[in-house]
Amino acid sequence: MKISDIFAGKKTLSFEIFPPKREEDTFTLIENTITKLDSYKPDFISVTYGALGNTLTNTAKIAKHIKDHTSAEPLAHLTCVASTEGRIDEVCGELKQAGVENILTLRGDMPKDVTTPVFSDFKHASDLAHYIHGKYPGDFCLAGACYPEKHPEAENMRQDIEFMKKKQDEGMQFFNSQLFFDNEAFYHFLLQARKAGITAPIIPGIMPVTNYAQLDRMIQVTGCNVPLKLRNYFDKYKDDKAAIEEIGLIFTSYQILDLIANDVDGIHIYSMNKSGFIGRLMDNISYVAEKFFE
C-alpha cells in the first residue's frame, strides 16, 4: 500500500530504524525491534542506511521483512550519494519484487574523509525523485525530507522552502521533517510552507534524547535549537544517566502531545532502535495517541 493513500483517511504514526552497519551482522536484534515497534500499530516504518550506501542491501532486506511480517508499510531510503542510475534501477527492481511501494528520496549525508566524488548521476533529492517518478510512474509513493529550522546549507528559510516546493513538483507526496525540539519553530515553518503552495502532508520528526552527549551531537549535526529549559535540565543532571533518560522521556512526551493538540498530519519518531524507550514513551501518551491515530 502507498503511504499517500493512508493519509487520505487518517493521521499517521511512524518510526525510523537503521540496519546493522555490517553486511555480516545478523538481523536478530533489528527483527526484535521491528516486532516491538509493530505492537504500537504504526502506519509505516522507515529504514535508513549509512553514508556511501554501505548498508543499502540490508535496507532492502529489512524493508522486505517489514512488508512480510508486520502490519506497517516499509519506507525505504534512497540517497543521491554514490548512486548511479543503474544502481537506482537495481534497487527499485528489488523493492518492486518485494512489494515495497514507498521510497524516501534524499541527497544523503556527506561522508567525512572521502576525497573521491560522491555524486554521480544525482546531485539533489529532487533529481532522484524526478528520475524515479519518470521511470516508474505509479509504482512508488515518493517522500522527502524537510527542515523546520532550515537545512544547514540553505541561505535562508525562504530558499529552503523553495527547494521543498521543487521536491513536491518532482513527485514527492509527503515530507518527514528533520528532528527539532522547539515546536513553535515547526508551527512557524509549517505556516510558511503552506503559504508557499506546499500541500503535501508534512510530518514532524521527533528524536527522543536519552543521554547528554546525544543532545550536543544532534545540535552539531542539525543546527537545531534547544529550548533553554531542556538545556538547563540536561546541564544540571548531565552525570546522572537515569535522570537524563527520565527528563528526555517527559520532554518528548510533552512535545508529541503538544503536536497532537495542534492537529499535525502525523508523528514520525526517530527510534534509534531503542524499542524499550519507545515503549515507555508510547505508554506515556497512549490515551491521547490512541484517539489521534485511530
Summarize the structure in words.
With 294 residues, the protein is α/β, with parallel strands linked by helices. Helix content is 48%, strand content 16%. It contains 12 helices and 8 strands. Strands 1-2-3-4-5-6-7-8 form an 8-stranded parallel β-barrel, surrounded by 5 helices. Strand 2, helix 3 and strand 3 form a beta-alpha-beta unit. Helix 10 crosses helix 11. The two termini are 18 Å apart.
SS elements, strand count = 8
Structural class by secondary-structure content: alpha/beta
Tell me the helix content: 40-55%
Low-pLDDT segments: 51-55
* First-to-last CA distance: 18 Å
Query: How large is the count of helical segments?
Result: 12
Biggest sheet: strands, sense, closure?
A: 8 strands, parallel, barrel
Gyration radius from CA atoms, angstroms: 18 Å
Percent of residues in beta strands? 15-25%
* Spatial order of the strands forming the largest sheet: 1-2-3-4-5-6-7-8
Task: Write down the overall geometry.
Answer: globular
Give the overall average pLDDT.
91
SSE succession:
HEHEHEHEHEHEHEHHHEHH
